[in-house]
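Weekly structure sync, notes
Attendees: PL (lead), two postdocs, one rotation student
Agenda item 3: pending single-chain targets
PL asked that the sequence for the first pending target be pasted directly into the notes so everyone works from the same version. It is reproduced below exactly as submitted, 351 residues in total.
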Amino acid sequence: MKLLDKKRENEYRHFLESNERCNFQQSTEWADVKENWENEIIIVEDEKGEIIASVSTLIRKIPIFGNLMYIPRGPICDIHDEKVLRKLTDDIKELAKLKKVFTLEMEPDIESSDEKFKKIMLRCGFKLNDKAKTFSEAINPRYVFRLNIKDKTEEEVFNKFYSKTRYNIRLAEKKGVIIKEGTKRDLKDFEEIMKVTGKRDNFMTRPLSYFERMYDYLVPNHMKLMMAYYEGKPIAGIIDIMYGNKIWYLYGASSNEHRNVMPNYLLQWEMIKYAIKNKKDIYDFRGVSGIVDKNDPQYGLYRFKKGFDAQFTEFVGELYIHFKPLRYKIYKIAERMYKNIAGIKTKITQK
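Predicted structure, written out during the meeting:
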């Protein structure tokens, strides 16, 4: 097992950013943001000593139960090279033993249709949970919308949007919505609007300190805060992450006022134009529910993202190894109880 050391971080960043499977959650910068987790990056080298595969692991101590290992959107490698995947798996198991991990969970950035990858990972000793449908059933969303913008012009991309989406973008421009890139000071406005969004849509939000930490570690190369203003007041904002050949729409917030001027549509279009200008391949709108039903509470989010002509993408789900199965079962029961209590507290405080 070879772990990345500080001296090779630049080499690792270059490997990650130049790989078609690049994902920001496998970066050293993202590991810095996740301050409550210990980070270890496993690398595999070729005969020349160059990195050909990697996996960034996050390890966290769970009181009473022990250490949990989570691998977000890895591995980064040729996902059909069984020899490399077996080497990575052996090293992951070795690290898990060293860190006294009771369970390992991995959510790869690999589409569910990739049967070859799934079969290799099952042969390597992983088990697969592909039942998740909603946001609460996984750490990372299993379903996303991805817009392929590789080698496309603004006109080509815009003309593929649904007619209602094009109309709403033009409406926002006509009504005088102004989009500006935000600074660290603007995070306070973003966080305040995010609180409004969380209360309206019934989800827990991140504190200002978290967004400031993101800003400190990711700006200017890997994060943009974009704010929408109407009549001089901030009414919406988004945080996008840039890494390698992709841009991810990570967080969005909108006030209850002036929603009729459609700031969210214009914010997305400005970032898509930025992605095209900077020759990215993919603009990732991130998560949606896997329950595509007009009566589902999350259907509005699905419809909004679909309107940009993005592709509905389903990932393989969660690959896992429970080193202590009984302990894991008890942990999941305790976790569900905690989430239920936290949800009740959130509803009470939002009233």
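Discussion points:
- DSSP finds eleven helices and 14 strands in the chain.
- The CA atoms of residues 58 and 244 lie 21 Å apart.
Action: rotation student to compare against the earlier draft before next sync.
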